[in-house]
Amino acid sequence: MSGLSGATAIVGIGATEFSKESGRSELQLACEAVTAAIADAGLKPSDVDGLVTFTAESSSEIHVARNVGIGDFSFFSRVGYGGGAACGTIAHAAAAIHAGLADVVVCWRSFNERSGERYGLGQASRPMDTNADRAAYSWMTPYGLSTPAQWVGMFAQRYMHEYGATSEDFGRISVIDRARAATNPKAHFFGRPITLEEHQASRWIAEPLHLLDCCQETDGGQALVLVSAERAKDLPNTPAYVLGAAQGAADDQHMMTSYYRPSISGIPEMGLVGDQLWRQSGLRPTDMGAAILYDHFTPFVLTQLEELGYCGRGEAADYILDGHLELDGSLPLNTHGGQLGEAYLHGMNGIAEAVRLVRGTSVNQPRTVENVVVTAGTGVPTSGVIVGVA
């Protein structure tokens, strides 16, 4: 186990409502979520001395601090690569606290991703610029590979070819997520489960991806508060200790278009993250009581199960069919409904759900959960965390 494991804990979570049109600025969403998380932790804004968010975040740390009433703060950091940053914010916060750079750190993400800038539109509608990522995309867009769904569709098609997976195998992830969302009053799809037949009947977005293989676009904000393990003992909520926190970018990594590797049917950057998590925590995949896996597109959930060591290459479809991801299975999945069912907050709402699972307050609490593994965005440089009771 590493010295970082168990040294810090998530003690506060806060969020706005999740909607398709928030009717307010991204800064206001950020401030609402941060204020709620600080209150949930039993702390005051003036206790906060560190802030971590995404490079994609539109609200600056100084404006959030000013509007929330934080005052002076001594640490701030941003993590890149879109949804791949989610668990990276926790890694940065935990490292800062462990190193003595801050005592109370808030991680947050807010956006009007439905009513404002829609990430799903991809590159074609964006103004030209001269950065290296846009130059790399220029090799893809002339061939119709412009949107996230189209990029992931390439991986999914190859995975199906190599391992015999089917669209129904992907659809079972969507069915599971929507079943969880159906019983979560905060989820956009509350009360609206789906069947596998409905998944198969949904329209194509980028073959082999159906509409119901693709996550939502959401307006909202989510924040989390971290402190040292020692300080966490004096706060009102059950601490969710950070037992592992890692980032990873694998060889020949691209932004959701890593087509030049010898094999494109895996996501080795997630394997790199998983290896670090198991080593840091001293835990194994079978020690997890639940998993919150990044589900912006269903095929990548299968490959994550394989990269994290829950099954062998190409075996995820059978692993799912065997019932492991059900609430009474060995690895209950996305108990909040995931980004397919609850909301797409770049994965930050998934970390909040992991905290609820450790607290025992999830609306779909499967049983007493001691450890939860959480992953961030796939197809990009990514991150992961393990939170647990001690």
Account of the 3D structure:
With 390 residues, the protein is of the alpha/beta class. Helix content is 33%, strand content 17%. The chain is built from 13 helices and eleven strands. Helix 2 (61-68) links the parallel strand 2 and strand 3 (75-79).
Short note summarizing the structure:
With 390 residues, the protein is α/β, with parallel strands linked by helices. Helix content is 33%, strand content 17%. The chain has helices at 26-40, 61-68, 86-98, 132-137, 148-163, 167-181, 196-201, 229-232, 268-281, 299-307, 316-321, 338-341, 348-359, and strands spanning 8-15, 50-54, 75-79, 105-112, 204-206, 209-210, 219-228, 240-248, 290-292, 371-375, 382-388.
The CATH topology comes to Peroxisomal Thiolase, Chain A, domain 1
Structural class computed from helices and strand pairing: alpha/beta
| Helix percentage | 25-40%
Q: What's the CATH H-level homologous superfamily? A: Thiolase/Chalcone synthase
CATH architecture: 3-Layer(aba) Sandwich
Distance between the termini: 13 Å
Poorly predicted residue ranges = none
How many strand units? 11
Instruction: State the major sheet.
Output: 9 strands, mixed
Strand content: 15-25%
Order of helices and strands: EHEHEHEHHHHEEEHEHEHHHHEE
Q: Any idea of the CATH class? A: Alpha Beta
How many separate helices?
Answer: 13
Report the mean per-residue pLDDT as an integer: 96
Features:
9-stranded mixed beta sheet; 33% helix; globular; Peroxisomal Thiolase, Chain A, domain 1; 13 helices; alpha/beta; 390 residues
